[in-house]
Amino acid sequence: MTSPPHDPPSPGVTPWYGTSRASIDLDAISDNVRELDRRAGDASVMAVIKADAYGHGLVPSARAALAGGARYLAVAQLAEAVSLRRAGVDAPLLTWLFAPGDDLTEAVERDITLSAGASWAIEAIGAAASATGRTVRVHLKVDTGLGRGGSWGDGLDQVLRRAAALQAEGAVEVEGIWSHFAWADAPAHPTVRAQQETFEEICEQARRIGLAPPLRHLANSAATLTNPSAAYDMVRPGLSVFGLSPVPDLGSPEDFGLREAMRLTARLVNVKPAPAGQGVSYGHEYVTETDTTLGLVPLGYSDGVPRHAGNAGPISVNGTWHTVAGRVCMDQLVLDLGASSTAAAGDEVVLFGRGVDGEPTAQDWAEAAGTISYEIVTRLGARVPREYVGGEA
Ligand SMILES: *Cc1c(COP(=O)(O)O)cnc(C)c1O
């Protein structure tokens, strides 16, 4: 349920002027984690909440994921991990993007688990361990065929040996070994099985030099939902935590027992009659066919509405879908509401939500803009206030 558009701001969202809001259902996040945990069998859930929790807000989403039973949290960047700790989130927390020369002291002192996917990274972690006198918890990132982060070949051998030596000295605790799929969204693709076999061989290679990390993790959302054999000790879903389907051709959120946590709304700020033949928005890429009514929505590409969705993005107004008329501007876009529209300035319009009340979904926007739902939610601009509903508070 969303609140009516005239509610006061939620704490932490200031100033509030009511032009738009993203309402985030924290109970949906908790329930989604519960469902993913159920699907993961004996494996536990590491909830990936990078990129401001896929646009949903880092700290509230972290707490909601933990309330749903996530055992571990993960973010891409070190700065995101430090923000979580500074906000008082003290659950186990993995991060994997930092650069040579970054000061790891605060991360180590705040008990953040660091990923090592290259020789320089395991050396930097070893140095941070000596500087702080602490034992650093480490997950070793291996490239089993994605061709992105992590080490392979001789580089992997070096990282494994160095990690084993540091562990023998008490400088690190190698708690995890992990990798990432290239084709998890196509479960029958031969690389999926091949990456799992490589992963298992690498775990064996690590064991031979004395490393037997208890947390082996490989499965993102798509693998968690479609490939139970990839669950190992922990699954690592992100998108599905927020109730979106990573494999829309294979199943909707509902099919997977998930529900979308974000609902993006705005209020019409101008509604006016327009004659037939009127060009609309920059470049007049839309021209009215009949006498009609134009409605102005105060959201644009700086708020995350894809500029690619000009003449394509769906928006529901009082239960009826309309398509963005003409170009999406930086702060605004226009709808052709039709001659008989009863819409008025101040009415709420819905860009996307769960779809259960007939509104579009983030997946509909992804299709309209030629992208994936990941991009629709993560690109939501900082200017759009997040309002939280549900949750323990
Ligand atoms: C983003 C990410 C995930 C989560 O992926 P989803 O497809 O959103 O579930 C897991 N692991 C790594 C390494 C990632 O970068």
Automatic annotation (TrEMBL):
Entry-annotated residues carrying N6-(pyridoxal phosphate)lysine: 50
Any GO CC annotation of this UniProt entry: cytosol
One BP term from GO: D-alanine biosynthetic process
Record: residues binding substrate: 148, 330
Domain of life: Bacteria
InterPro entries the record matches: Ala_racemase (IPR000821), Ala_racemase/Decarboxylase_C (IPR009006), Ala_racemase_C (IPR011079), Ala_racemase_N (IPR001608), Ala_racemase_pyridoxalP-BS (IPR020622), PLP-binding_barrel (IPR029066)
Residues at the active site: 50 (proton acceptor), 282 (proton acceptor)
The keyword Nucleotidyltransferase is annotated on this UniProt entry: no
Top EC group: isomerase
EC code(s) of this entry: 5.1.1.1
Keyword annotations: Isomerase, Pyridoxal phosphate
GO MF, any single term: alanine racemase activity
Catalytic activity: L-alanine = D-alanine
Named cofactor requirement(s): pyridoxal 5'-phosphate
Residue ranges of every copy of the Alanine racemase C-terminal domain listed in the record: 261-389
Pathway: Amino-acid biosynthesis; D-alanine biosynthesis; D-alanine from L-alanine: step 1/1
Family: Belongs to the alanine racemase family.
Function: Catalyzes the interconversion of L-alanine and D-alanine. May also act on other amino acids.
PANTHER family in the cross-refs: ALANINE RACEMASE, ALANINE RACEMASE, CATABOLIC-RELATED
Protein name: Alanine racemase
UniProt organism field: Marihabitans asiaticum
Organism phylogeny: Bacteria, Bacillati, Actinomycetota, Actinomycetes, Micrococcales
